[in-house]
Structure of SURF1-like protein:
Amino acid sequence: MRRLLLPTLLGLAALAILLNLGLWQLNRLAWKEGLIRQVEQNLTLDPVAAPGPNRWSAGAAPIGDYLRVRVTGAFLPGEAYYYNALTSPKGHYGGPGYFVHAPFRTDDGWIVMVNRGFVPDRFVAPDSRPGSAVPAGPVTLTGILRLGEAPNMTTPAPDLARRIWFARDPAAMASALGATGPTAPFVIDADAAFTPASGLPQAGETVVRFKNDHLGYALTWFGLAATLVGVYIAYAWSVLRRPDAKKPEA
């Protein structure tokens, strides 16, 4: 039986680790599902005033993503483009293309980049889509707040010559378009009602997507735990069946 002591202790330790990892993933699953429900609820609420510069500092309360907000002000000249393949469009257009972003100066003097909507790749040039110019004069805009993205090691660098970004970077977009002033660390995805009569850019195409693989990870950890138990039982059975394992110890 002494032969089983060390394998048993090691097996119990490994089993405890695997079970705890599985339970942790189940907790993460519950958290993620709660977050998804909260976002879905937020998208049905009336818009609130977009958070101004007093909310952008590190010590302020965090700004929530996917909030319905409103701002009043006027669009500034210029466009920047955020590459995206729209796989489940709500409107007519989808596939590879760009979200057209334009700088917007609020009545309070700060800048926010507005995602005016999606255009297919062939319509990225403004002169290829007549009637798509920004509204002139003051406008009250409503839409969904989306926090800026930090590029990772696999994110291509922006193409500044063509004003194309592969990560949502509102400050860099505004700077490239010459918009000066405090710039919000988020963009506002305009509601579908702000789609021009021409149909482009196609607004209201916020992509609500959460990676939620926690159930699969939990099943993997629990499966490994079950495999470990099976391997231990087979090993213990083989040890106990050995002739020398039945001999009384001197």
